[in-house]
Design goal:
The protein is built from 3 helices and 9 strands. It is of the alpha+beta class and 192 residues long. Strands 1, 2, 3, 4, 5, 6, 7, 8 and 9 form a 9-stranded antiparallel sheet that branches.
Length: 192
């Protein structure tokens, strides 16, 4: 995992959303990924990952232990977005959203176990808290309260930008592949 934080500006995006709920760590991600991959593959959207980027995030978040790790066997959700062209036509049973752009602090995570994702989130949150130049976006209450171990509040929570989608990872263990899952963790920020 690289500890180099960069600031990027995401433009507004049109996305197709795929959401699932699950009972254990990795379950909703796998379910939502299966839906998204099948749909995107049928539309030919996986051939150009720069044009059709994939983002994901917990929705709702899993309960977090005192150590900052998701509690096992607790229900939570995961939502994937795949970017589409502005003129994309809405289809029946497909959830299309327009997402505002903005500034984000970004840290890369090379996933060897799901714990790596939580650790990367923690490092990025700490970097923002200690930054003299950047602060959490005012609507970013969710991450701020979650990482201070207080009650979770809904708000902008951040994104996981999946840089190398793995088309057929081992069931329930997407990090157990010869090619490591790589994602950029995005947290919305403003200048102080």
């Amino acid at each position: 995992m690289s500890d180099f934080v960069k600031i990027v500006s995401l433009p507004p995006m049109k996305v197709v959303s795929f959401h699932s709920m699950g009972e254990f760590l990795g379950d909703p991600e796998e379910k939502a990924s299966t839906k998204m991959m099948a749909w995107a593959k049928s539309k030919g959207l996986l051939s150009n990952p720069r044009e059709h980027q994939v983002f994901g995030f917990n929705n709702p978040d899993p309960p977090i232990s005192e150590e900052g790790i998701p509690e096992p066997n607790k229900r939570y959700g995961y939502e994937y977005w795949i970017t589409v062209e502005d003129d994309f036509k809405t289809e029946e049973n497909i959830d299309v959203k327009t997402v505002d752009g903005g500034s984000y602090a970004v840290l890369t995570c090379r996933v060897e176990s799901p714990v790596d994702i939580g650790k990367t989130w923690g490092k990025l949150i700490k970097w923002i808290q200690e930054s003299e130049k950047y602060d959490f976006h005012p609507n970013c209450r969710g991450l701020k309260s979650r990482h201070s171990k207080s009650h979770f509040e809904y708000g902008i929570t951040g994104l996981e930008h999946h840089l190398n989608l793995l088309e057929s990872p081992p069931k329930g263990k997407p990090w157990k592949t010869p090619e490591k899952l790589v994602m950029d963790i995005y947290v919305p920020v403003i200048e102080k």
